[in-house]
């Protein structure tokens, strides 16, 4: 195996990723994602759009290209173009783009059935487009669309096309598994055919995940001599999506010992940004970026971690600016409880820890989620201590909503024995409550209010309107993440309980 090679990463979140059903980025979102990918994460290249899509797309590409030119990154911004005479090239050039990814036909079936042209006619059209792009000073890469089927069913066509183009100014030949039909064994063989026949050329591989083989095929492509890999953040893309950027980075580094320019510590941050703008939630078990992937559930795992990190692998959370957590629930053993207690600075006797563990297992059997932030309250309840002193108390609140009017909230809090009151409008009842509370902290106390980063609501199945609603809110404050839970028959009330809980946690932090 060829070790320590440098693999180029081209991310296509803003082009192919946007073809995910229901996903559409507005221009300023595209600019923010482009900046995060190139400036923060340091991917080698980004593909930001398809030519001729819309006026909004043109605005987005122009803004990205302006920023990229000002920061010396314009050659890393690419736009998909088509063999359509001069139309695509003129569109990209007018946007300020200087790199075109020209979509050509990589299989005889696509050439003959879709274009209704002979291979010779298609090659002539490609060469004419290439010549015009060169006149404008543009760089050209070429996609061989449907290459995976072409190399299987019509390899003579693929080689005819490559033979005609290999000595041109084309910088990269990009080989897509357009329909996700390949497996790693086939791919290694096909990629080696390409690299052996054309050793002087740069090949990219573009995976699709229809058979859940995108990541495996990425490794196979690099084993076959491919020098560039296409990814998308969170695996966004057509149908089952593309190869997820975070997973590609981890597998190239850990299983191939390949080198990339990616800053791993920013992967989670960029994934959350794309999650927010796309509206597509990251599955909790998604490798690298999922909520649960660095959480040990079984008590035996926590015990093993205490005895020489027996359940660690190379995917250490610190690589990705994350931390390891130990879940609390019916599978939690004493070791999980002790890990969380230690993180909170709480010490229990063995007998006390046993009783707390029993209570957490009891809650888990009832399908109740227990967070580390709940632990002090559980400890107090089980050990019959006084309830932890609430330095922030909700004395009263009123939220109103009416058809055609924005919801309004009046909130009265007691903070360290002093009463404060504020009113605010919001886009919803809870939003109005948070705005009023934030005003108290900002205007009355001159204090920072935590940033809400995630909000989930769990409602039991069965259609009962009086069922308890569980609201779990994730907060960010002073570079720390907190999760608090509220339980109530009313969703707004549950969220308010979770909010008061985090304010008490932060009051303790502020006091320290």
| Spatial separation of the terminal alpha carbons | 54 Å
CATH first level of the largest domain: which class?
Answer: Alpha Beta
CATH topology of the largest domain, anyone?
A: TIM Barrel
The count of helical stretches stands at 17
Structural class: alpha/beta
The largest pleated sheet is described as: 8 strands, parallel, barrel
The rough form would be described as elongated
Poorly predicted parts = 298-306
Share in helix: 40-55%
If you average the pLDDT, what whole number results? 87
List the helices and strands and how they pair.
Blueprint: E1 8-11, H1 27-41, E2 45-50, H2 55-70, E3 77-82, H3 87-94, E4 99-105, H4 108-114, H5 119-135, E5 139-145, H6 147-153, H7 155-165, E6 173-176, H8 184-197, E7 203-206, H9 214-223, E8 228-231, H10 245-256, H11 267-278, E9 295-296, H12 299-306, E10 325-326, H13 334-344, H14 350-365, H15 375-382, E11 392-402, E12 405-415, E13 418-425, H16 429-444, E14 451-458, E15 469-477, E16 480-488, H17 491-511
Parallel strand pairs: 1-2, 1-8, 2-3, 3-4, 4-5, 5-6, 6-7, 7-8, 9-10
Antiparallel strand pairs: 11-12, 12-13, 14-15, 15-16
Helix pairs in contact: 1-2, 1-11, 6-7, 8-9, 9-10, 12-13, 16-17
Keywords, please?
single chain, 512 residues, alpha/beta, TIM Barrel, Double Stranded RNA Binding Domain, 8-stranded parallel beta barrel, 3-stranded antiparallel β-sheet, 16 strands, elongated
